[in-house]
Design a protein that fits this description.
The structure is a single chain. By secondary structure, this protein is an alpha+beta fold. The protein has three domains: 220 residues, Rossmann fold, CATH 3.40.50.620; 75 residues, Uridine Diphospho-n-acetylenolpyruvylglucosamine Reductase, domain 3 (2-Layer Sandwich), CATH 3.30.465; 114 residues, 3-Layer(bba) Sandwich (Phenylalanyl-tRNA Synthetase, Chain B, domain 3), CATH 3.50.40.10. It is 42% helix and 18% strand. The chain is built from 15 helices and 19 strands. The strands form five sheets. Strands 3-2-1-4-6-5 form a six-stranded mixed β-sheet, sandwiched between helices. The longest helix has 29 residues. The radius of gyration is 27 Å and the shape is elongated.
Length: 448
């Protein structure tokens, strides 16, 4: 076991001799096995070990017991110990997160704090082969692509490593038993109210018993194979970017022709890279969102725009532009005048001059003053190009706008109803035609 552990560190360049390592240790079998393995090579590899234990404030006295157990083991083996206590349930509620998401956030923030304090080169966390299989199955059921099916990576960013990912849960439990390590049991891992736990305790055992006794090994191997394929595809994109002399870190515009010439497998990866480099990352970004940006490019309609993951994409003169979107609107901001309108004689109007944050309307079809607001129950309008009206709620559903974002989409209205669903669709009722005499250019700005 120890030889395999060292070989894994060397083969995948996870740790180098003489480095300081922060280890996330909950007290469960996975993290205790990882800690013990590092402890056994500490002197040989000249490693500095620093243990971080997180109490999520969820399990009361049982969590206290776990913390004291890990602390005692560290003290006995002369390992630096850092304990953090968080009320994760409260943090999740205050930030509109799930409990799991908030827990992950505070964990990695604590790891990073200690890493900076002790000048560590690595942060080691203890996912194993079974975790990998569960993750791949969970993502498979959600309809993910190669990026999702490759599962949990051995490394994440410059610091995070997963040095026991190659070990199965049974191997780890046997190791802990042989080494007589003090193990803490988190009863929440047994509760099948969580999707991962249902997969762990119900689905995987069923597959093992009825279809494939080596399903965990098979899914682990699948993740590795697809990870290799993904690396090849990414390297192909690198070559394409290099041939066009495009560095995504420095540019904010890409010729539409470049994107349309790319293979379909590379287009979505290009957008993903932009979101990682310049936006809010890939959290809550689905294949549907990537398809919307690609569709924006393929249609190549001047003035079209879309905001995803904090990045505003827009098309102007055969070029895709992207930039950090402005401050997100709140419901209080709607009272501020974010709205302006200028009139243009029809004979002077050129549709190509309409900017991404503007729409052109027939001023004579507007009824009364224009104003801005958010949606209300019962809202409906006639989307541009449609014969009849549609409920705004149905329009949002068809456009696949997440529920949590719908209340923040500004609506430009006149006395007869919705004129423009900002960023999405103009009303057919006010569109410019060959009979239009006066054109109004309505502009919306998120920063007022």
């Amino acid at each position: 076991m120890l030889d395999a552990f060292e070989s894994n560190l060397i083969e995948h360049n996870l740790v180098r001799k003489g480095e300081n390592i922060v280890l996330g240790v909950s007290g469960g079998p996975d993290s205790m096995a990882m800690l013990d393995l590092f402890l056994r090579i500490r002197e040989k590899w000249s490693l500095g070990l620093f243990v971080v234990h997180i109490n999520h404030g969820f399990r009361g006295e049982l969590a206290q017991r776990d913390a004291l157990s890990v602390e005692a083991f560290c003290k006995e083996n002369e390992i630096a110990f850092y304990r953090y206590d968080f009320d994760v349930m409260r943090i999740a509620k205050e930030n509109g997160m799930s409990f799991e998401e908030a827990g992950r956030k505070v964990r990695y923030e604590a790891f990073e704090e200690v890493r900076n304090k002790v000048h560590a080169k690595r942060i080691a966390v203890a996912q194993n082969k079974n975790d990998q299989a569960e993750t791949i199955l969970m993502r498979m059921m959600r309809g993910t692509g190669i990026e999702g099916l490759k599962g949990i990576p051995r490394t994440r960013g410059p610091f995070i490593i997963r040095p026991v990912l190659y070990m199965s849960r049974s191997e780890i439990e046997n190791y802990c038993e042989d080494r007589k390590l003090p193990i803490c049991h988190d009863h929440t891992n047994d509760e099948t109210i969580y999707t991962r736990n249902k997969i762990r305790h119900e689905l995987l055992p069923y597959i093992e018993e009825n279809f494939n006794g080596q399903i965990v090994e098979g899914l682990y191997r699948l993740g590795n194979l697809l990870g290799t394929d993904a690396q090849f595809i990414e390297s192909t994109l690198d070559e394409k970017l290099k041939s066009y002399k495009l560095d995504l870190k420095d540019v904010s515009e890409i010729p539409v022709a470049f994107i349309t010439e790319l293979h379909e497998a590379l287009r979505s990866r290009l957008i993903r890279r932009i979101l990682v480099l310049h936006g809010d990352g890939l959290k809550d970004v689905s294949g549907i969102h990537l398809d919307e940006i690609i569709s924006l490019v393929l249609q190549n309609r001047h003035g079209a725009r879309k905001i995803i993951s904090g990045i505003e994409f827009s098309i102007k003169y055969d070029t895709l532009y992207y930039q950090k979107s402005k401050k997100k609107m709140t419901r209080a901001d709607i009272d501020i005048k974010c709205l302006s309108c200028r009139a243009v004689q029809s004979e002077c109007f050129d549709e190509s001059c309409v900017q991404p944050d503007e729409v052109a309307v027939d001023l004579d079809k507007l009824h009364g003053e224009i104003s801005a607001r958010f949606r209300k129950d019962g809202d409906k309008f006639q989307p541009l190009g449609m014969m009849g009206t549609k409920k705004l709620k149905k329009f949002f559903i068809d456009k696949k706008i997440p529920v949590e974002q719908r209340d923040m989409v500004p609506l430009v209205c006149d006395e007869s109803g919705i004129v423009w669903v900002v960023g999405y669709r103009l009303s057919e009722r006010v569109r410019v035609t060959s009979c239009t005499r006066r054109v109004g250019i309505i502009k919306w700005s998120d920063s007022c």
